[in-house]
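Justification of resources, computational component.

The compute hours requested in this renewal are based largely on the per-chain cost of generating structure records like the one below. Each record pairs the submitted sequence with a full structure-token output. That output is archived, and it is also reused by downstream analysis tasks.
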Amino acid sequence: MTTPATPAPATPAAPAAKGGPASYFPSIEKKYGRPIEEWKDLIRTSPLVKHMELVAWLKTEHGLGHGHANALVAHTLAEKTA
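The structure output for this chain reads:
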């Protein structure tokens, strides 16, 4: 008789998997000192429209990390389609 295999423990999910892009907002505000709405206004008024162009712009011009820039852009662009 064989013993049933014990499943491997689950690996912790990344913050975005738990709560989506908005789960990054508290750390973005803390790290960069600007409210989220200000970042979203910058994204909305930018002449850029493509996701990765906006991410690159936030990283280059405003010093955001990739994950933070990506979360802000994803959340802001999703509002347009909702």
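Residues 66-81 form the longest helix (16 residues). Confidence is low (pLDDT under 50) at residues 11-17.
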